[in-house]
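To fix ideas, we close by showing one paired sequence and structure record:
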Amino acid sequence: MCGIAGIIYRNGDGAHRIGRDITRMLQSMKHRGPDSTGFALYRSPGQDLVLRIKLADANTPRELEFADDLRRHRGEVEGRLRAAGAVIHSIDAANEYSLTVTLSYHGDLKRLADHVESVPRAEVLSVGHSLEIVKDLGDANTVSAGYGLYDYFGSHGIGHVRMATESDVDISNAHPYWAYPFSDVAVVHNGQLTNYHQWRRRLERLGHRFASDCDSEIIAVYLAQKLQDGSTLEDAMRESLEDLDGVFTYMCVSEDALGMAKDELAAKPLVLYEGEDMVALASEEMAIRAVLDHEIETYDPHEGTVMVWTR
């Protein structure tokens, strides 16, 4: 079933408790997806790049050499980043299997990500000047507390609660998905794509990699290819309605925008609120009401709709 949620504040000052707000929205929809929770959160862009990297899964078997492997792999990740030409400013660990790396880098992001992912089990979850993707097993409150997201201040973000139906319960198959190798773009999705394998083969031939077996990742990588080809975010999303088959509603975020797309059948729900200072959308109205303390009016976007808001 799954649930998706998003907020963008119009004033763009980056001083909103976006981590807390997305947590509240997602926790209110826990019944739609108890397996994993994910966030794509945006701060005001800086000069440095931020990489979110996982070294293992929350449910990876803790064998005797597990801790030693993680220490060795962390060292290898640092070495591969430097070998790619990055200057590392800081490395922080939210837990034993995830890293946040802040660095300076002016080269090809695909090369940087591929260097990191040549380390066994390592996966780049996001790359951006303002984007950070956090996802893990458990409900929204559990993940938010584990990664300190209640104190994350920013301008906009999206989130996802997942009920696994066709792929494993792990971090790789949790949403959101980074639009590899395009910085600061991420996607959450509710639905099913019926031409998943066709598009995966096509995008792999163009040099893209996939970290999961989840059909939702196709949307992120599809949009990355369109952006690389010169499309605007809104144009890329409109083209996706022609190219991607199935029943789906998805949200896409970039450094300064939040967008939604609903397929021609409109079978997957989405509720929208537009206020003077913010826009909020979610699979259920109760998620929007979880962050607003006044009476609101909402509406359901029509089938075949693409909408984009900027901060």
